[in-house]
Every structure is written in structure tokens, then in C-alpha cells.
Amino acid sequence: MVHRARPPRRPASLPPLPPDDATLTQSGLPAPPGKPGRILLIACGALAREIMSVKQASGWDHMDLTCLPAILHNHPDRITEAVRRTVNKNRKDYEHIFVVYADCGTGGQLQAACAEMGVEMVAGPHCYSFYEGNAAFAERDEATSFYLTDFLVRQFDAFVWKPLGLDRHPELREMYFGNYEKLVYQAQTDDPALTERARICAERLGLDFERRLTGYGDLETTLADWATRDRK
Fold first, then answer.
1. I need a surface site. Which of 17, 163, 187, 210 has the fewest CB within 10 A?
2. Range 21-126+218-231: architecture per CATH
3. Where in the chain is the domain with CATH 3.40.50?
């Protein structure tokens, strides 16, 4: 009689694996099924891995996460309504809902909608600012820098190269990036392979390269505040 080895079962204590970047870009992340936690985070798909990492490290099992498609950042006029729909859909199931978006090009519309709905959002103009720390980012005042995060390095073609048509018309590079001086890679993780990919992105854009290990910045401190909000 032949005994076939069964594949090892994944321990129940392990957190769910995050979806791949392409899924986070196009589809986002649905809220977990079953009994909800006490807090729901409504976030951009570009922040999913970072939020899950902070949640896991801190043991914040009472916080659930759902993400809108990250590609909405290429259409900021659609972000506010998408957030509004998601808040209204989930409001009855959670004690607290927080929006893990900065302004993100909405021209203040997202902040106004969140104030109207009575939900709090991350402070800052965009994720580049809160990753570095809003105060530190404002002090730098780098108008000629182009920024990438871990997620955007991995999804550079989907968010930058192809949407701008540079895959078909590389001669447009100077028109889009001629006024920039350097590409700043804000690294959330210390990953040499990802750093090399970021350096190649800078070369493709014809820009100088700088890497800053920011970690999670104000995102982590904001999540920590929210995680204990219902215990105060």
C-alpha cells in the first residue's frame, strides 16, 4: 500500500498572505469575510502590504482592512466617491471606520467627504509626505524630485511608464520629466534588489537617484493611535 504524504497544513495562527501587486493595483482588497472586527481601515491598495505588516507586528487583530484599487491614483477624481461608497457599505458593521488615504490629488474633496461622514483620514497631501513624516517632508520643499515607494518601484510600468505612453513614445520623457532633477526612492523596507530596481527606474527617466529608508513614517504612528482609539 502506497502512502502519499499530505502537504503540510498552514497553521491557523499565520496571517493571510497579501494579494499580489497586480491585484492590489486593479482590484484592491475586499474586507475579510465572517465576523468583523471593531475597526475598519479603508485604504489605497498601494498601502496594503505596509498596513498588514504593521498590523501583524503589533497584533491588532481587531482592525480589519479593505483596499480600493491602487490605480485610482491615476484618476484622483474617482477616489472620493469610491471611499464614500465603501464607508456607507460597511458603516453598520463597525464601531469605527478610518480612511487610510491622504489628499492624494483630490483637491480637498476627500477631506470634505470624510468630515461630512464623520470619519478620520490620514493627515498629509500624499503618501510620500506621510512616509517621510509630514513635517520633515514639508521642510525639504523638493519641487524638482520625483518620488517612488516600495509599491511604486514594483509597479513602475503600470503606474508611470505605460500610462504616460513612454513604452510607445520614449521621446516624451523629456516633456514629462525635463523639469525634475532626481528620483527619490522612499524605501519602506531595506531590500537591495528593490533598491536596484529603483535605480534602474531613475536611469530610465534620466534622473539622478537618491534612496531614503523612511520605514512607515506617520502611517505607523497614525495606525497606532487608531488602534487604541476605542480603548480610550
1. 17
2. 3-Layer(aba) Sandwich (3.40)
3. 21-126+218-231
Please answer whether residues 41 and 65 qualify as being in contact, where contact means their C-beta atoms are separated by less than 8 angstroms. yes
pLDDT tens-place values along the chain, 232 residues long: 434 444 333 333 444 556 799 999 999 999 887 666 799 999 999 999 999 999 999 999 899 999 999 999 999 999 999 999 999 999 999 999 999 999 999 999 999 999 999 999 999 999 999 999 999 999 998 999 999 999 999 999 999 999 999 999 999 999 999 999 999 999 999 999 999 999 999 999 999 999 999 999 999 999 999 998 765 4
pTM for the model stands at 0.88
